[in-house]
Write a structure and sequence with these properties.
The chain is mainly alpha-helical. The protein has helices spanning about 10-25, 30-35, 40-55, 80-85, 110-125; strands spanning about 55-60, 65-70. It has a two-stranded antiparallel ribbon with strand order 1-2.
Amino acid sequence: MAKILQLSEAASLALHSMVIIAKAKKHINVNKLAQEIGASRNHLAKVLQQLVKYNFLKSVRGPSGGFVLNKPASQITILSIYEAIEGEIDTPECPLDKPVCPFDKCLMGNLVKNMTKQFKEHFQKHTLEDYIM
């Protein structure tokens, strides 16, 4: 079945992991996260390292190590997590990135632009704190 909107596996892993880590009272390791999410440990580890690179997480080595938030959950928007994995969201005028439309009227109207804007606004107004209460 077709979907209008679908998150990549990496973005989904990042968002879900960040909520679980934010809820944890202590460091949580990649094995436990992978098991809880039902994800590949290797893929999840790559996603988490990207989140470390963007300073959302701190990684601690050792037997009691794992991942912990690097800043308060209230300061981390869902949009910032998404864009750390997928890159900045562009809001194009044309969904096909064409400078000139071959038709007198765009078949999509402003639908793609409006949906993208709504997606960004929704993710921007929510922080991790909204999901750990």
